[in-house]
Please model this.
Amino acid sequence: MASSREIKRRIRSVKNVAQITRAMEMVSASKMRRAQRNVLATRPYADRLLDLMSHLNARMVGVRKGSLLESRPNVKKVALIVVTPDRGLCGSLVTNVLRRAGSFILDQQRQGREVEVFTFGKKGKDFITRTGQTLVGEASKLGDSPKFTDILGVAVGAVSGYQSGTYDEVHIIYSEFINTLVQRPSVKQLAPIQLPVEETSGPRVDYTYEPGQADVLEELLPRYVEALIYQAVLEASPASIARVW
Model:
């Protein structure tokens, strides 16, 4: 039977662990709120940018060659961006994203298309390397609050690859953040950009664009793709922060 001294020592040990756990929980909760705020803040920006581009596109006739709006009739090479956390212990999030990426790659290969992969996060990089896929760019160790500049290397590589004709399509696979318990693997086509048809019902404010609406649109298209990629990276942050809780 344990002595009274051993019992008291055990009680003190449990109390110390409880204090440390509460402190870690408070830090994690603070990081979680900040990550959620960042995710929600980027969505209206991307939506407004899409609305503006749709308005510009509706006023133009035809699409410039090499534009991110130009569809290629014969798709031979596809760029895929896979977004995962650097670490695991976040339920089935990583598994679901990687399973979706593997399924996407196999489907493209069955159609006779070559796939080159960019990754964000160590888990995605390890999976692509382990399965023998072509990895052309990666970014990892972005932390819990990735900056916009952190994604530019991969974003510019994918966008310039499409504009130069290296890639005929660009897609991204990421985990869409619904709440701390639900993260849904999603596939989104980044290029060619598919603009919605502008709604013309009701009054609408018109603008004068300088140097010209075509030039403004061509400048906005890459910024829109970069915003979508940054948003996808931010979507992975809350689940990564919550992995230990």
